[in-house]
Design a protein that fits this description.
Elements: H1 13-70, H2 77-84, E1 90-98, E2 104-111, E3 117-128, E4 131-140, E5 145-153, E6 160-171, H3 175-179, E7 185-193, H4 195-198, E8 207-215, E9 221-232, E10 235-247, E11 252-259, E12 268-274
Antiparallel strand pairs: 1-2, 2-5, 3-4, 3-6, 7-8, 8-11, 9-10, 9-12
Length: 287
């Protein structure tokens, strides 16, 4: 017969004490558990109420404001356009030069004050009596100026005005770096010879402007235009326009322009070359 005292099913003293303590304090433990659950629920519902109030009175207005901003442009496009719109071309001079038979040449000098915009197509009109009597197109590079010339016009200067009818702008960043290797057109050995020194026979007096143009860049051009402006004191004494055809890279060309009409005393001159760099049709093919 097995020893009941050593039976494995017999509870230890510690287990008996724990069981006795549990039986004695069972009601108290139940009350403590219920109280703890009540405190926990109160805490959870209190926190939920606090968060609900915070969302309604604090986060709510901020959220509504954020929703309103979604339909409001974050960028002031009107200001942005105004700040990035190119400034108008500047009219530096507009002069009329008398010719024979009550005719006139008109010289216009335009400047582009912008750094990042090319006036790639400028329509310039000579207007008299409300009617357009002559029209030319030109281009003006950033921070540069150019001439527009109207020759042999019959309209009187006091009844003539200049109109810039249209300007097509092209935004171009880094134009100076783009143009530097392409606009290496150097003018050398320029001299003006007045009619008294350059006449070929007494019946054909002519004044001569002679110069050498060299293309020091790596690009050749089908045509290089040159504005020739003779200065007389503070004004212009004569104008002309000469085209140098097929000026290749590294090539030099000596050219001259003659004025057959009488000129005032010429004190200086300007030779302003121009090439339309923005169109591939201006460039000679690479050999």
């Amino acid at each position: 017969m097995a020893n009941d005292f050593n039976s494995p099913d017999r509870m230890s003293d510690f287990s008996l004490k724990v069981s006795y303590w549990y039986v004695v304090h069972k009601l108290l433990l139940k009350k403590l558990l219920i109280s703890g659950l009540i405190v926990l629920n109160v805490g959870l519902f209190g926190y939920a109420g606090f968060r609900l109030g915070w969302m309604i009175f604090v986060d709510g207005p901020a959220y509504a404001a954020a929703l309103n901003q979604l339909t409001t442009p974050l960028i002031d496009y009107s200001t942005l356009r105004a700040n990035n719109h190119p400034a108008d071309l500047e009219l530096e001079s507009f002069e009329a030069l008398p010719m024979a038979d009550d005719r006139y040449d008109f010289a216009v000098k335009l400047a582009n004050p912008n750094d990042k915009h090319i006036a790639e197509r400028v329509t310039v009109q000579l207007v008299s009596g409300g009617e357009v009597v002559a029209e030319k197109t030109t281009f003006v590079y950033p921070r540069m100026s150019t001439y527009v010339m109207f020759f042999n016009q019959t309209v009187p200067p006091n009844a003539t005005e200049l109109r810039i009818a249209a300007v097509n702008w092209q935004r171009f960043l880094g134009f100076a770096a783009f143009a530097e290797p392409r606009l290496r057109l150097k003018i050398t050995d320029a001299e003006f010879i007045p009619a008294g020194s350059a006449s070929v026979g007494s019946s054909f007096p002519s004044s001569i402007l002679r110069f050498t143009i060299k293309n020091e860049g790596a690009y050749g051009y089908w045509q290089v235009g040159t504005h020739l402006v003779l200065l007389s004191g503070q004004g212009i004494g004569g104008i002309n326009y000469l085209v140098v055809d097929q000026l290749r890279a590294g090539e030099s060309r000596t050219v001259e322009m003659r004025w057959l009409q009488p000129l005032p005393t010429i004190t200086d001159f300007e030779i302003v070359p121009e090439v339309d760099l923005m169109h591939t049709s201006s460039y000679l093919p690479v050999e």
